[in-house]
Amino acid sequence: MTTKKRSPVVIEFRRNLDGVMKDRNLSLQDVATMAGVSKSVAHSWTAGAVPQNLPAVARLADELGISFKTLLLGEPDNHTQGFMNENAFDLQDVFDGLCVLSIKKVIPKEKKP
User: Fold this and answer.
1) 13/80 Cα distance (integer angstroms)
2) Strand, coil or helix: what is 78?
3) What are phi and psi of 21, to 5 degrees?
4) At the top level of CATH, which class does the domain 8-87 belong to?
5) pTM for the complete prediction?
6) DSSP assignments along 13-48, one per residue
7) CA torsion angle for 18, 59, 8, 11 (degrees, to 10)?
8) In this structure, are residues 57 and 35 in contact, taking their beta carbons and an 8 Å threshold?
9) pLDDT in tens, 60-79
10) I need a labelling partner for 76 at 20 to 30 A (CA). Which of 29, 60, 85, 107 fits?
């Protein structure tokens, strides 16, 4: 039987989310509401699933008052967030499960004049 290795990012996200939920006494429904996802999606995150909806993770981080990087990776963000998380992503479906997307750096969109 082959054992699948979990990505360190996924493990950190799960730990970070669990820690925030315990520290702030948040339920799965609270997390789901803040992220704008279903309760089953929030549950899958706490069970160790790879977050597929990164804008939802960004919304959750914003609602929690922490950086996207801190929530996802557990690393302190040394940069101030000069943009709002909800504006960081175009909310368009580009991929339909055809690939795995790895984000190394989030760069804010240029503001329109």
Assistant:
1) 20
2) coil
3) -60, -40
4) mainly alpha
5) 0.61
6) HHHHHHHHHHHHT--HHHHHHHHTS-HHHHHHHHTT
7) 20
8) yes
9) 999 999 888 888 887 776 55
10) 29
